[in-house]
Amino acid sequence: MPIARRLRAPLVLPCDPQCSVLRDAVVDIDERGRIAHCGSRAQAPEVGSDTVVLDCAGMLLPGLVNAHAHSPMTLLRGMGGDLPLLRWLREVVWPAESELTPEDIRAGMRLGSLEMLRSGVTTSSEMYFSGESVAEAVLEVGSRAVIAPAVIAAPDLGELGGWRRMVADISSWIDADGLRFGPGERIELAYGPHSAYTLPPEALRAIGEQARERGALVHTHVAETAEEDVEQRRAYGSVPRMLAELGVLDGRVLAAHGVHLDEEDVRVLAESGAGVAHCPGSNAKLASGTAGLTELLEAGVPVGLGTDGPSSNDDLDLWEEIQLAGMFARLRTGDATALGSAAALLAATRGGARALYRDDIGALESGRWADVVHVDTDNPAFVCGVDTTDERILSNLVWAAGAECVRDVWVAGEPVLRDGEPTTVERAEVQETARSAAKRIEG
């Protein structure tokens, strides 16, 4: 059960819309594990004698939100790493995934959750098989996840290809446990139709209907590569227009990648309120292209950042995605001011929450879950320490710092990482279990 805490630090970045930098500030956490107050220390309310007070050198900020991931694929890291997307999926990934057991998926997800916590990612939006195994791993490590069990009709996956059964299983799970459950509502359930090119239109329509009935998110790949959706573009104009015609965009939708979108596609997504998960690292590695981030943001589309799978990226480090998002936006537009430090940081926090239709994570604001990250500024990245301008603090954090600066993490007010090490699992055991599973899959 969470206890009341006050975290004090020289710097606090609440990730409000202005991306403010607060000096000599506090973050108060109530007994429910939610933010009670975030502001200057001088104006902070009195706290009770039972409140645990902790001084944190450096800065505090909200946990990062990984808006699109397949984290159990830590076990497949390095397999087929030099192939383009569709060959990589059909020749390497899908055959390997057909051999995975629920216990393998749990082992891969535990490793992925641990890797993310150590880089300050507290929430990930996961699309994968065996959702129960993914949930068990997340709860064990202590992180937070939006879990969209994958729905796919691919012959290479054998018995996993029965999409009707997959959809029925997700609906039954939501009906039994609700959309959110676990300590601090750490788990949210969603539907994960893989893509328009791996499912028939009737499947997408059915998923949209069942998701709307339950208020659930639909998390799907959209326009990742130029050649994947030729048939859908011929029949509907594009995948976003296809999803709109089938009624899928009438509910909550997260479109992963969105690399190959035209102006009409962006308009359709913006009018529907759908979110986009921008995955610059994976898209670059697979030579898929880079999404029009600035165009999406200017149209009002909620955009978060994602790592994609750790076998196509090949890590789960969202700090790297923050930097790549900024650099690729500048290259794409030829404008060195296209995406500044503040906007890049907000995409990984507040923006990711918006893309997931969540107003309870992604910022240090009263009422949101106390998912908090402590970043150590005693590091060459922060050459002036904390005694410099707000602009330079943000610049140092975004362009020079990284996962190595993360020291402590709290999720729903509970400490889950202390001085770089997990508090709920043994790192050596998690790594060894995953290593054994990966070696067996490799054969």
From TrEMBL:
From which domain of life does this come?
Bacteria
- List compositional bias (Basic and acidic residues) regions by residue number: 423-432
> Is this entry keyworded Calcium?
no
Q: Which Gene3D superfamilies match?
A: Metal-dependent hydrolases, Urease, subunit C, domain 1
| Key word Hydrolase present | yes
**Keywords of this protein's UniProt record, alphabetized?**
Hydrolase
Annotated spans, Disordered = 423-443
| CDD domains linked | ATZ_TRZ_like (cd01298)
Q: What Pfam families has UniProt attached to this entry?
A: Amidohydro_1 (PF01979)
Domain called Amidohydrolase-related: residue spans: 59-416
| Gene Ontology MF terms in the entry | hydrolase activity, acting on carbon-nitrogen (but not peptide) bonds
InterPro entries noted in UniProt = Amidohydro-rel, Metal-dep_hydrolase_composite, Metal_Hydrolase, MTA/SAH_deaminase
**Classification via PANTHER family:** AMIDOHYDROLASE-RELATED DOMAIN-CONTAINING PROTEIN, AMINOHYDROLASE SSNA-RELATED
Q: Any idea what this protein is called? A: Cytosine/adenosine deaminase
